[in-house]
Please model this.
Amino acid sequence: TKSLYRYILFSRISILLGGQNPDYMLHGTGVKPGSDPKRPLSGDGFTVAPEDAARFLSCYCSGHCPEDATNNTCDTNGQCFAIIEEDEHGEAILTSGCMKYEGSHFQCKDSPNAQTRRTIECCSTDFCNRDLQPTLPPPIPGKPQLWNAHLLAFLISVMVCCFTLVAITVVCYYRYKLQTGRRRYQRDLEQDEAFIPAGESLKDLISQSSTGSGSGLPLLVQRTIAKQIQMVRQIGKGRYGEVWLGRWRGEKVAVKVFFTREEASWFRETEIYQTVLMRHENILGFIAADIKGTGAFTQLFLITDYHENGSLYDYLKYTTLDTQALLRLAYSAACGLCHLHTEIYGTQGKPAIAHRDLKSKNILIKKNGTCCIADLGLAVKYNSDTNEVDVPLSTRMGTRRYMPPEVLDETLNKNQFQAYIMADIYSYGLIVWEMARRCVTGGIVEEYQLPYWDMVPSEPSYEDMREVVCVKGMRPVVSNRWNSDEVRSSIAV
Model:
């Protein structure tokens, strides 16, 4: 401890009084020129105690030689050293020389520095530093060199420029395609005008088509009408899609826009409507069907007559009936259903058709107070010649509230068309029950309710309906006042 204290004190006095730079320790010999090398002096000429002075060494010097060195040799009272450093170009430079006694212990014990890329080694015998081979410490992992940072910045800049260029190209391409599609659409629209003479109304076109096959308007005319439709506003929405009020040459039409996932329903309903001899006053009037592509997405259009009174469901909620109105609604709905169920024989015959999703929301009210049946997306066809039942591939199911017992308990014979007819009749009976509740008798009328409204939730499950209809055998409640009226009592029976 005393020796260390004397050493530190000596070093401080030597530096302060002698005015030597610490870097001099790597270059000087530790002896002032003109002094006796056997008697080392401090910076101000004080004699150093013999026990504090090290013996003099001769060292090999290269790059750190004093001015008076000869034959690359220097003398020091400290140690010989060899140092390897990395210059600004990344090259390793090995130099050697004499280190002064003052501070040599600290300098020689300096650990390799990975930050500055430098290593020093010392020894204490004559010319021993010739054999020293210090090595550079490994670089810090993950720390990029300066040139790597520049390269990385350059690569990032190039990638950003390329990405921006690609994005601009894609946007310009899609804008070009969109504009081209619009021009083509407008050109086709103008060309198709020739197929429908000016002044022709929908009624004229449909009456002309009815004199032929009776399967509806020609496909080219349908496409033309679909392209010329102007959408006004949305008037309804269901699980299949949306219903819009549209206009064609000033005439109001209903446009049923199917979701893309409901393409099977759109195709089936279009197929049913275009069946030969399908047109009937109590079946919703079909006008056209088409697949419209706007460039960004596809729309499945089904265009029909527009009835401003809406569905029977909406009509009964806000309208009460007298006996004549009740009979008119029930009879017209029965006529439409009968036309569907009837097979017409002949060269241009019509197959028998069952609706499979009959309910008050799928029956529309015309201006004259009669019904027309709509939504034929689940309909099945039957041809007696082949005795085959044509069932649609749609994944849609009928409305659970209106399902008959044989559908709920899965006992329906799917190969017998008569079973589908009986299922429609059951659903029709529930619809007539809805009508009869809104018929005024002696100033009394019930509020509108759906069938089984007091027995199942508003959105019943299969299990709910099966429990009520099949297991418990329950049916909608008939009011006692029906017995006092001949019409309603016959309905109750």
